[in-house]
Amino acid sequence: MSQPALDAVAALGDDLRRRMYDFIRRAAAPVTRDEAAASVGISRKLAAFHLDKLVDVGLLTARYAQPPGARRVGRAPKVYEPAGLDVRVSIPQREHGLLAAILLEAVRAQAPGESGRDAALRVAGLRGRALGEAERDRLKPGRLGAERALTCAGQTLEGHGFEPERVTPTLVRLRNCPFHPLAAEDPDLVCAINHAFLAAFLDGLGAAAVDAALRPREGACCVELGTPD
């Protein structure tokens, strides 16, 4: 779970902030401090404090502007708008957006004569390879042996909710399925997509010494990373 998401959720834990944020999200135009204060029945000064907290965590943006229809007199007031931050908190972490993006792209890019399943696996591979290549460019790790490859892979996959566990120097198990509960509804398809994604990720990372093996386990990810048997 990202720190910005945690900060945003913490900010909305305050009832006044949550109500003002909801009011601003539903407003048809940018909201002034006076309007926000009136929406929850507090002073303008206290509203300013809470509104600026919401700006600090990325939930709102602020600027100076005259409200529509207002007569220009003196300095324009500060107005607030939703920042468009999409906050999703899940424990354990889920990556339903990634799965949806793979399936959507597969529908759009399905080749003539290609099955929907094959298109999804192909797109999952492209996505995984792109992630691996991006990490290799960022880390510049050089030639990767098995142990170093698993360390690099684990660091990346931790950020995507897989919860990697180093069982031995050359074996990493992924304790969490980021695609649950959809994987439980169609394990044949979703686990195949996950396997294709992770195998291609290792290829893009340049981790030739390790494989992604499909080994389903109850309550965990269906893939293990390690040296070939």
Structure description:
By secondary structure, the protein is of the alpha+beta class. The protein folds into 2 domains: 3-82, Arc Repressor Mutant, subunit A; 96-226, Muramoyl-pentapeptide Carboxypeptidase, domain 2 (2-Layer Sandwich), CATH 3.30.1380. Helix content is 51%, strand content 13%. It is built from 9 helices and 7 strands, in the order ααβααββαααββααββ. The strands form 2 sheets. The chain has a 4-stranded antiparallel beta sheet, covered by helices on one side. It has a 3-stranded antiparallel beta sheet with strand order 1-3-2. Helix 2 crosses helix 4 and helix 6 (116-139) runs parallel beside helix 9. The chain starts with a helix and ends with a strand.
Summarize the structure.
The chain has two domains: about 5-80, Winged helix-like DNA-binding domain superfamily/Winged helix DNA-binding domain (Arc Repressor Mutant, subunit A, Orthogonal Bundle); about 95-225, Muramoyl-pentapeptide Carboxypeptidase, domain 2. About 50% of the residues lie in helices and about 15% in strands.
